[in-house]
Amino acid sequence: MIKISQLNIRFGDFKAVDGLSLDIPQGELFGFLGPNGAGKTTTIRALNGALTPTSGSIEVLGYAMPKELQKVKPFIGYVPDTENHYEDMTGHENLALYARLYGVPFSEIDRWLSVLQLSEAAHVKVRTYSKGMKKKLLIARELLHAPKLVFFDEPTANLDAHSIQLVRRLMQDLAAQGTTVFLTTHDMEEVEQICDRVAIIAKGKLLDCDTPTAFITRHAERFCDVQYDRDGVMVRHSYHLDDPAQRAALAHIIQTEHCLRVHSREFKFEDVFKKLTGEAYQ
Ligand SMILES: Nc1ncnc2c1ncn2[C@@H]1O[C@H](COP(=O)(O)OP(=O)(O)OP(=O)(O)O)[C@@H](O)[C@H]1O
């Protein structure tokens, strides 16, 4: 579905993407993560054919990019992180423009407005829409032509809790139906909740690629926090459970001290991300 081999993208002397290789099968909900400036948007632009790589190769749906962009374009949806609607037109009119462009029946407009819970606002000018409504209209627009691959750039930023759940479920449904979902997000809870596989990049380089669970298992640092009362003074201490000496020290404290609290720390995907991208866990 997507095959990236040894991708390099330079801006002058600056390497924005550095030797990136990825293989993403059809129907996968793939998370593409990295700190600010890591090279995510640059990579997505190359995958969309908006930018020609310095070297390396990209294949999307079996077509070479950017050479065969026109052939692959009808099968791709791209939900950018900023809206670009015609504000003086209604939501329905905005979608109608795209429906005509892609030869999609108008019944699909009503269906997608309903899926994104925008039916009531269908005939209201987009100018009056809230930020969240504009984002949802953007998603409806990019799904209208039933693409086989959809790029979502921060789709749940600025959405309320209800809409976040709606959009996350929608991405999961799309993947379950065989659409490949390429998701960029800074929301680590989202990644843990919905992604099948995740790639983390930093400074243009791939750090690791796997399932969220495998990331946690491989990179987890296990800590136990203890509080005990020693002669009327509250002592707090953390033990690294991967260190045999600290495990023994913890066992000793539990046996000999009056422990008030023994608490193993939860290691989340966010902690893995921070660890891999340079922010220490402790
Ligand atoms: N057209 C350009 N010319 C020069 N440098 C660029 C250009 N586009 C991007 N860059 C640089 O490439 C690097 C990667 O940028 P990119 O936008 O891909 O990062 P990102 O991972 O999407 O970041 P964010 O999470 O902040 O959106 C940055 O240092 C950016 O300044």
UniProtKB/TrEMBL annotation:
It comes from Methylophilus aquaticus. Keywords: ATP-binding, Cell membrane, Membrane, Nucleotide-binding, Transport. The keyword Transcription does not apply. CDD domains: ABC_DR_subfamily_A (cd03230). The keyword NAD does not apply. Pfam families: ABC_tran. Residues 2-228 form the ABC transporter domain. SMART domains: AAA. GO terms for molecular function: ATP binding. This is ABC transporter ATP-binding protein. It comes from the Bacteria.
